[in-house]
Design brief:
This protein has 290 residues and is of the alpha+beta class. It has 3 domains: 66 residues, Uridine Diphospho-n-acetylenolpyruvylglucosamine Reductase, domain 2, CATH 3.30.43; 109 residues, 2-Layer Sandwich (Uridine Diphospho-n-acetylenolpyruvylglucosamine Reductase, domain 3); 82 residues, UDP-N-acetylenolpyruvoylglucosamine reductase, C-terminal domain (Uridine Diphospho-n-acetylenolpyruvylglucosamine Reductase, domain 1), CATH 3.90.78. The chain has 6 helices and 21 strands. The structure holds flavin-adenine dinucleotide. The site of flavin-adenine dinucleotide (FAD) has 30 residues, from β3, α3, β9, β15 and β17.
């Protein structure tokens, strides 16, 4: 960890870094001070062959044994700036809700689709996060990466193959994203954002810890609808529960362990396969050791 200026914590519990409030410890948690620090960290990890995992924390189930190697939180890389041509540059650790607020105040339209997604800009890029209103690939102009050699590389969006809930990137740390927006009318942009937030509040269990949607939507169907139609809302293993409000959310009622969530996911998948004949694929990322 020589020369790093950011915080370094050994044996750091990761639950507090996740929206699920679940997860064992990281061997080492590093919060780089800035992009140069990220480059230094990537170089050192590569030279010493230590695995490195970036955590934003809102689409993750970290298993109870935690994550070996280095976990990186970009909590110090949150700057946002406006550039000419209705472009915003947001660092990888900036929260999407903050970026949306910044865009609204400047009457910049084009990011309304992301209202209510709690992840970081870097995580939203990697996941090609999306809603029924749009997805990350619609808004990205270019991306700044730190490669595993510790070098900075800027890629235009056209060089990134985006798929459903996935951007095909080489192993890297997303240090920042240029978002191509357009000049709009503040009241109009704000209204779309507020309406969508209200819709989400009415339909999703936002007051309980979760990691958002657990399953990808199968073609021409909705995972939440299938789970509900199979009668699984309210099903529990330990403190993990299929949300009674939204079938595609699993919520932590207090002390759920990753093991409980994984067992519940297994039950849901088997029941939906049996009743509807549909195989549900995970949108949630399960990482770490049992
Ligand atoms: C209440 C709630 C509602 C949600 N609604 C939606 C929704 O409508 N649509 C949707 O798509 N998602 C939704 N999500 C899920 C989640 O917010 C998104 O998937 C988001 O993109 C994840 O961002 P994150 O920063 O938390 O990344 P994480 O979940 O921590 O990580 C996801 C993956 O990206 C990698 N990663 C993260 N940051 C970086 C980086 N800077 N560089 C390299 N790799 C990185 C991680 O290593 C991991 O592999 C919701 C989650 C919650 C809790």
């Amino acid at each position: 960890m020589a020369g790093l200026r950011g915080a370094v914590t050994f044996n750091a519990p990761l639950g507090p870094y996740t929206s699920f409030r679940i997860g064992g410890p990281a061997d080492v948690l590093v919060e780089p001070a800035d992009v140069d620090d990220v480059c230094r960290l990537a170089t050192q990890a590569r030279v010493r062959r230590i695995p490195l995992f970036v955590v934003g924390g809102t689409n993750l189930l970290i298993r109870d044994g935690g994550i070996r190697g280095i976990v990186v939180s970009l909590s110090n890389l949150r700057a946002i700036r406006e550039e000419p041509g209705a472009v915003l540059y947001a660092e990888g650790g900036a929260g999407m809700p903050t970026v949306i607020g910044y865009a609204v105040r400047r009457a910049l339209a084009g990011l309304e689709w992301a209202a209510g997604i709690p992840g970081t800009v870097g995580g939203c890029l990697v996941m090609n996060a999306g809603t029924r209103l749009g997805e990350m690939k619609d808004s990205v102009k270019a991306v700044r990466l730190v490669t595993m050699k510790g070098e900075i590389a800027d890629l235009p969006a056209s060089a990134i193959p985006f798929e459903y809930r996935r951007a095909r990137l080489p192993k890297c740390i997303v240090a920042g994203v240029w978002l191509q927006l357009r000049q709009g009318v503040r009241a109009e942009v704000e209204k779309v954002v507020k309406d969508y937030l209200r819709y989400r509040k009415d339909t999703q269990p936002l007051t309980m810890p979760s990691a958002g949607c657990v399953f990808k939507n199968p073609p021409n169907d909705s995972a939440g609808r299938l789970v509900e139609a199979t009668g699984l809302k309210g099903l529990r293993v330990g403190d993990a529960e299929v949300s009674p409000k939204h079938g595609n959310f699993i919520v932590n009622r207090g002390r759920a362990r990753a093991e409980d969530v994984i067992a519940l996911i297994g039950k849901v998948r088997r029941a939906v396969k049996r009743k509807a004949g549909v195989r549900l694929d995970l949108e949630l990322k399960i990482v770490g050791e049992a």
